[in-house]
Amino acid sequence: MEPPIHRFHELFAQLGLPNGAQDIERFIQTHAPLPMHVPLPAAPFWTPAQASFLREALQADADWVELVEQLDAALRAKPAAAQGA
Questions:
Q1: Radius of gyration of the chain (CA)
Q2: C-alpha 41: how far from its chain's center?
């Protein structure tokens, strides 16, 4: 398996989002958990351009797909504060 071409913080930059470690953590904590029935690109917090990028990355199996899937998994998980509840 080849290493990913891009890094997770670069995905956030590509989406036009703040991409520092704390920014990414805050984004995930704010928007997780994303219900399983909602496809990642259909989540209500994306702009149309962001949703389009995510949809295209997944459909084309683009070089971003591994990171988009990683983002999807992170958003499906319970936020850390809620896991102990």
A1: 13
A2: 9
Residue 54 in tokens = 């995510």
How far is the C-alpha of 14 from the C-alpha of 9, rounded, in Å?
9
Which residue did the predictor score with more confidence, 60 or 9?
9
- What letter does residue 45 receive in the DSSP assignment? T
The whole-model pTM stands at 0.85
- What 3-state DSSP class applies to 49? helix
C-alpha pair distances (Å), 12 with each of 63, 71, 82, 85: 14, 9, 24, 29
Q: If you ran DSSP here, which 8-state letter would residue 58 be given?
A: H
